[in-house]
Amino acid sequence: MSSRLSVEERRAHLIEAAIGLAEKKGVAGVTTRDVAQAAGVSLGVVHYCFENKDALMTELVKALSMELRDSVDADETVWADTGTGKEALHKLVRQGLELMWRNIEATPERQLLTYETTTYALREGESTPAKLAIAREQYKFNDSTVADVMDHCRDATGCDWNIPLPQLSRFILSVIDGIVLRWLVDDDSDAVQAQLDLLAEMVTAHAN
Questions:
Q1: What are the DNA-binding region positions (predicted)?
Q2: pTM: predicted TM-score of the whole model, two decimal places
Q3: Which of 30, 58, 83, 103 is surrounded by the fewest CB atoms within 10 Å?
């Protein structure tokens, strides 16, 4: 890796290397030495960018979450000329869920990794509280990401949510978690489409 890369570029490169390793061998099996070798850098570079493996894993789960957020934001046509009112909001929410789903469906290994990261943090957190913080940060970041998207949907259509946004985003994230986990089990994409239809209707019902 070029020495001219900025710290942020180095961090991104190391995170991507960690994701690739974790997809192959699981989160628990990844070491900072493995990441250094996969990224083609010294172990010192890894520890310069991340204090320890826990810090790297925290940024890893954020990167996975941002991939889903970016999949919604990437198609600018979705956000253009949306119209106003609840019907427009419903259409926009459903389109956003569809864009997110396309990313999920194309990356099953990465989706499995998000659940592995959570269970790893919870299991190891019994003896190491710092690891429990990985899972909590993961969901805190995901809640914020979903809330930002719902904020964008509200502003684009001139609607208002009639329940607190943090409550709504937590509900949406919980449902998506379950949908994706069930899909990883039974690989039924048709069922997912029906569930996303239902989720969009349930979300829109909480808007004025």
A1: 31-50
A2: 0.83
A3: 83
> How many separate domains does the chain show?
2
Q: Is the pLDDT of residue 40 over 70?
A: yes
Same domain, 59 and 38: no
Read off the pLDDT band of 185 (50, 70, 90).
very high
Query: Residue 169 corresponds to which tokens in the numbers above?
Result: 């985003």
For the cut 80, the answer to whether the pLDDT of residue 11 exceeds it is yes
> 177: domain range?
52-204
Contacts of 116 (CB under 8 A, 6+ apart): 22, 26, 27
Distance CA 198, CA 192 (A): 10
Per-residue pLDDT at 125 exceeds 80: no
pLDDT tens column, 19-31 = 999 988 888 889 9
Same domain flag for 16 and 74:
no
